[in-house]
Predict the 3D structure of the following.
Amino acid sequence: MSEALPQGPLRRAARRVGIRLLSALPALFGVLVFTFILMRVLPGDPAVFFAAGAAGGQAEIEMVRQQMGLDRPLPEQLLRYLWDVGRGELGLSMTTGQPVRADLLERLPASLELTFSALFLALVLALPLGILAALRPGSPVDHLVRFLCTLGVCVPTFVSGLLLVYVFYYLLAWAPDPTGRLDVFAASPPGITGFLLVDFALVGDWEGWRAAAAQLVLPAATMALFVLAPLARMTRASMLAVLGSEFIRTARSLGLSGRRVVLVYALRNALIPVLTISGIVFSTMLGANVLVEKVFSWPGVASYALDALLASDYAPVQGFVLLMAAIFVAVNLLVDLLYGVADPRASVA
Amino acid sequence: MEVNRRGLLAAGGSAAALLPAPRDAAAQTRAETLRYVTGNVINTLDPTVPGATRESFGLSMNVYDRLAAFGRRQFEGNWIFDHNSIRGELAERIERSPDGLRFTFVLREGATWHDGTPVTAEDVKWSLDRTVSARSLAPPQMQLGSITRPEQFRIVGPRAVEMLLDKPDRLALSNTCVPYAIMVNSTLAKRHATADDPWALNWMRDNAAASGAYIVETHRPGQQTVLRRNEAWKGGPLPYFRRIIIQTVPEPATRASLVERGDADLCIDLSPSDVQALSQRGRVRVVSIPQTNGFTHISMNNRMAPFDDLRVRQAIAAAMPYQDLFQAALFGRGRPLFGANWSGTPESSDFPQPMPLRQDLDRARELLRQSGHPNGFSTTFTIGVGISAWAEPMAALVREALGRIGIQVEIRKLPDAQFNTAQAERTLPFYTEGGTAWLPATYYFFRLYFTRPQRWNFASFDDAEMNALVERAQFETDAAAYERQAKRMIEILNEQVPLLLMWQPLHEAVMAQNMDGYTYQFYRQADFRDLRRV
């Protein structure tokens, strides 16, 4: 954080982070076992689904079952799976024919890049809107913001996504064709981080960077619209509470400029609930943006998990849930750390 | 060398002016590139791997060669495959012994694998052995053509391989044309074989060891696969397109816009309503071909009461409003398999063909009364989520129609994996689905869909005469006798009504205006080798 901090508190913070991560392990283990059992309890036999060849009979179904290890007793399957997870292996996806770990590693950056962009876009819009609404509660500005938020929440993402595609690609042709992260005819950057914007910037290919950014605009806008409401409403509510508090009245009575009062004293204090909700919104978006990923052919983890779920393909779904749980733990920790930045009185508990 | 559309866009051109860009070289490349968009996934490069998707079969036909291939013929103004005309693919010549027990394949002179090494008789023998020995999807298919053991394949010359049969199976040669019968570069594959995996199934899932018309340039499962033309291909005339981009685009509406805007060239899995809208606006070419080797059916579980009673099945057959169902499900876009005028013996031995099914409510009520259900009964009609676009309106009509003769129908919609599981376990009493046979010979249809306790016996039909007929027809060498047997199978279907044949849906390929040569293939995927721009 700041180099002015003495060594002691930093080390203590690091230890607390370590403890937090360790204490998350039982929860992750629980999620792992729960998903494993849930997938097998659900009706639908993946072996039958995948053995769909023209001559496919019972022998073929048995073959797939054996290949997926489903012919073994359940406890043995669980132990084997845990052993694999311990070694960092998540099994083989029947849907794509690839190891789940490789699939997730390839697709997670796509989902993260999209979610970060959408969250960034949403925050850039939601914070000023929320502040404006809080400064003039009940005014036309407030009502306009409320209307925008309601609209964003009411329209499902696949509707707004398809609408944006229809207007900006099909009718106006301003946007590139909505198929994935990069134009099919363009060359992809060397895979350094998996984040296309970062990779293009690292190799200095600005034309490619612009192409990747252009692909991002519509899906990110679709998602941002959807999460605008919780962020703007939370900003408004917490700004209202803070603006009415005594220290703000004191600051005003001392003759500080309105700008300074709002942006420094009020906003900083109002940010904590916004941060909390951003963390939750982020985690939700990562898993819930499956519709956006489908509409824009975005090769992300959520659409990957949905395809696998529909096919009763166990390994990818289990891998996805584990990944989401891990990300949730990490995001919560990060949000707690950010509390400290927004409000030095808060500490990582 | 690649068209960078984004660069042009940044340069300020409007998108409408993009394709006829002034950069001739780039435009040339785009014209010789085919961009195919699909909602499905290629999950393996080796089509024999258990779990291979139909998209993977389609890819393998373009990447691999087989010894032989089906020809094609005109059907109602379009091209469809012709299983009665078989030509050599990797084989230059195929000789059949007069008794039908020996086929000799003479390989093409100068044929090479993608790595440039020559194709040898040893490679072909290894590949054929693989189709009967590997733990893959191939052996059960080959078995249907009486091809079961490696000893049936013999190298008889530097460029010649023999296939020996115990009995003159009608479909032995046809089975060398199916996607599973790929010819593999054995030297390359063996290098990646292990003790556990002697046929290199694991390695070939992600790598091609092929000699076909196209070479896999990049393969990202679930996203896109890029193919480059094999300039040294010997299996047929060099295809038109130099480059193929196969892209997975899950949203059907997006696929429709891509083709209509000219950004994609071909799509074969659009929703029927999109196809109709696109063909009305007329900016794309729509090729609609009845799926001649398929059929949609309404199945009744013949082992489950009350459908084990012939009169109940006949009553249901007489209660269905066929034409309304056809309109509601497919907007009439297909070939009806009901309403034929023959009775007793059919005129043709082809299958599927229209059956004499028509609505007659009085007869239905009478049959139901005779069967001991004068007041009807209750049952469930099951549909899979994957086919709900057409099956849902159909189910509603079935429910209404059967309600009129007193049968209470509850509609149940199941996710595909669950639907398939219930179907394989034969626990569905009454449901609809479709079936497609790679080799559309009449006896093969009946063997696959109307005999043996296996998954594709949709109605769990078990009829001693049918079982015997199918056995006999497989090895029948007398054409007239075979014709009689095939007609008898169709008669039994008509007498016993184990299931109701409904229609053949259309295979609808939507493509750019300037595309030509699209052929409906038995595996229901695009064969890029057939396509060109005009």
Summary: The CA atoms of residues 46 and 313 of chain A lie 6 Å apart. Chain A touches chain B through 60 residues (CB under 8 Å). The radius of gyration of chain A is 24 Å. The longest helix of chain A spans residues 206-243.
